[in-house]
Amino acid sequence: MIDYVISAEGLEADELEGFFVGWPRRPSAEQHLELLRGSSHVVLARTGGRVVGFVTAISDGVISAYIPLLEVLPEFQGRGIGTELMRRLLREVGHLYMVDLSCDEASVPSYERLGLQRLDAAMGRRNRAALGPNVTCLGSDPRTGPDGANACKLASCRCGPGHVPETGPDGTPLGVWALGHVSCLAPAMRLLDLSRL
After folding, report:
1. Which residue segment(s) compose the domain that 92 sits in?
2. I need a surface site. Which of 48, 99, 150, 186 has the fewest CB within 10 A?
């Protein structure tokens, strides 16, 4: 059974293992706990003494909120947990004039079913170095990605179908070691594709 709670109170870092799959630089469990505590709104999905999904919002409390993160552990995807997290969060911020998020094109229909509408454009910047030096090189030829992130010279990307690794100035695919597999630098920070839940 999945329990949903709207607070990170009493939460410990060891309950947050396994998140940020595929990120070039994964926040540590301690950083994850800090970001949950620092968010104005949090909804957690819990079972068996651990968090299996979460969504956060940052809000001024007056007219606007932004939803930066939604994630469900891979082994719990496909059960509607991400959709329920979003429903509960949208109830929490429903009184505000605007609630925005950025997502992959494939996720748009899922968010539209929850009442969100496509907007004209979104802009962003990623400072991967802010997440800390928790990335190691796979090989003996360490390189730096276009954003200064540690990277390695790799023959191919194993992120999944349709992913193309970002390349260095010499055309060599770049990647980083994260959670036991090689992942692209390019798809760094993305909201969960709700269509898979």
Report:
1. 3-125+191-196
2. 48
